[in-house]
Automatic annotation (TrEMBL):
One of its GO terms (molecular function) is phosphate transmembrane transporter activity. This is Phosphate transport system permease protein. It is a multi-pass membrane protein. Gene3D superfamilies: MetI-like. The keyword Metal-binding does not apply. Its main location: membrane. It is found in: Cell membrane. PANTHER family: PHOSPHATE TRANSPORT SYSTEM PERMEASE PROTEIN PST, PHOSPHATE TRANSPORT SYSTEM PERMEASE PROTEIN PSTC. It comes from Candidatus Saganbacteria bacterium. Residues 51-253 form the ABC transmembrane type-1 domain. It holds the Pfam family BPD_transp_1. Belongs to the binding-protein-dependent transport system permease family. CysTW subfamily. Keywords: Cell membrane, Membrane, Phosphate transport, Transmembrane, Transmembrane helix, Transport.
């Protein structure tokens, strides 16, 4: 009974949001997604700059966080044999407990002078924030690989790194991808830290040093200032777009992780 209430609550959330976004949906239609105009005075709104800023900053975060996260997970799960690895694992996971506002303050004082308020600064902040997610899940995925795979590879004459490549990374591919996508889902929805360092300018630029705006940031910054029904409904429609993106991303991640866990029979 209680389990059934969860999808009902999600359905209720979607219905309420769609109801609030109807004025914008009726006026702008599908063109809302592809328009770059955002003028509250003339009440013309478009989501494209915010979608672009969200996706590009998240992509930058993945480029930085994936090698670091996978490297950390591999070291903790397969390479390190010392007791210190447990403390390192705890320290990495503690990064997830730091409030996003603290990351934002750090970004202003450290990344601001280096890269300015830009997509790159936002991407670096996001990379640090999603690193614990990717590292922790990847570590568990690596540890879930049955020892028989590694023992068989070594029995056939594989070196240690060949064993890791063939007998660890091979069976864990889906789980690793799931961890990455789950980290992406976290990056897509992050608000406060990114808002403080990304520049908050609704522009589409090829330069990662240019300011940008994300879906979550514009909702947080402008929701209290929405002075008309169309303006408010346009912000809610941005929220629906963000919700759909994150739901698809997280659903895909869960599916891939479940596939790996089920295949390796670890639980």
């Amino acid at each position: 009974m209680f389990a059934l209430s969860i999808p009902l609550l999600l359905l209720l959330l979607v219905v309420i949001l769609v109801g609030q976004a109807l004025p914008s949906i009726n006026i702008f239609g599908a063109g809302f997604i592809f328009s770059s105009s955002w003028d509250p005075v003339r009440e013309t709104f478009g989501a494209l700059p915010y979608i672009y800023g969200t996706l590009v900053s998240s992509l930058i975060a993945l480029i930085i966080a994936v090698p670091l996260g996978l490297g950390s997970a591999l070291y903790l799960a397969e390479v390190s044999r010392s007791k210190i690895k447990e403390y390192l694992a705890v320290m990495i996971e503690l990064l997830a407990a730091i409030p996003s506002i603290i990351y934002g303050l750090w970004g202003i004082f450290v990344l601001g002078p280096l890269f300015g308020l830009s997509m790159l600064s936002g991407g670096v902040i996001l990379a640090i924030m999603i690193l614990p997610t990717i590292a922790a899940i990847s570590r568990e995925v690596f540890r879930s690989v049955p020892n028989i795979f590694k023992e068989s590879a070594m029995a056939l004459g594989a070196t240690r790194w060949e064993t890791i490549k063939l007998a660890v990374f091979g069976p864990a591919r889906s789980g690793i991808l799931g961890a990455i996508i789950l980290g992406l889902g976290r990056a897509l929805g992050e608000t406060m830290a990114v808002t403080m360092v990304i520049g908050n300018r609704p522009e589409i630029s090829a330069s990662i040093f240019a300011p940008a705006y994300t879906l979550a940031s514009v909702i947080a910054n402008e929701f209290a200032e929405a002075s008309s029904d169309v303006y408010l409904s346009a912000l809610v429609e941005l929220g629906i777009i963000l919700l759909l993106i994150t739901m698809v991303v997280n659903g895909l991640a869960r599916l891939l992780i479940w596939k790996t866990v089920g295949k390796n029979n670890i639980f």
